[in-house]
Amino acid sequence: MTTRPTTGPTAGPSAGTAAPRRLSHVDALRGFALWGILLVNITFMASAYRGTGMDDPAFGSPLDTAVRFLTEVFFEAKFYLLFSFLFGYSFTLQIASADRDGAAFLPRFLRRCAGLFVLGLCHAVLLFPGDILTTYAVLGLVLLAVHRIRPRTAVRAAVALFTVTAAGYLLLAWALAATGGGGIDTAAVTEQGRQATEALRGDAASVVGAHLRQLPDVVFMLAFFQAPAAFAAFLLGLAAGKRRALTDLARHTPFLRRLQWAGFTLGIAGGLVWAHAGHGYSGTPYQLVAVAVDVVTAPLLAAAYAATVLRTLAGPRGRRLAAALAPAGRMTLTNYLTQSLVLAFVFTGFGAALVGRVSPALVTLTALALFAVQLVFSRWWLARHPYGPVEWALRAVTLAQRPRWYREAA
User: 182 CB contacts (<8 Å, ≥6 apart)?
Assistant: First the structure.
């Protein structure tokens, strides 16, 4: 994967330490984001051509093209921003938790970042190179360094970061156009995709080797596309957490409505440009312009999604929606890694080796089925345990002590 970014979830922002009182709508929003992450990540695991700049030649029907296009418009490069916002928001809850326990926050957070980094490294090498946990671990240290920033300053810094990143891509587009360069070598990319597909269908060593060969491209994409946007979302979440913006949804209803109007209007328009540039224009100045457009419009669409979910949760059907999504949101790290584990057995030589053999429509249905199972499992698990399995392990690292494992009977 090279030119197109993956959207890797992330660790559940509350996996380290618990807040004094869990906000079910925040957990539900995190569960919703987990669903969007899965719908994107599965496309990269199902086809070795994803991210190379061209569509998988095995699936070129109108339905296949439509499914890919809609995924790119509405999901790709949007949901990791929502996770990043929640990471920044939960950062403030972790500080409050440490203060409540009378513990030093710095050692806790450093251990948590170290745990995330190790998990992310193993995940990237063994299961899915598009991991973002390592990026979160590194950016978490930067957030720690600036966490005393005032909310208004944090928002301004986030807007500036989005703007500067978009301007950088516009400058690259101008430079590429000035030199008359651009485009991709279709024959070379086709051969690259074929070789990657065969490697992913091989034995365990072949699969790991394929992941390692993809990592340089992934690291480049993370550093220059996802990391700046993710940190900007961190800052927005930090500002919202300091203002306790998600504790009283009714008070923010007018603002949430404005987010929906602006976010869906501008966000979908930007998503259309982003998706259009990815089909037939890879490596051209136009695609770089589309990336710039996405950098400034994807956050708006992510915000519109969040506003819609939050308003629904505050409405008459909110209790049912929260009951469905919140358990998965409390176990995002476990569910995220489980998604990659299951899909690795489905698509790589670890199991069925179906990479390049499943149509985009069936890939999407597979993601929906897997998430439905995770919703049921998460609710069952949390009825018996206070944390998800991986959350429990990360919490043990964070607190440097063994948390309780079984939920106490009422």
Answer: 176, 283, 284, 285
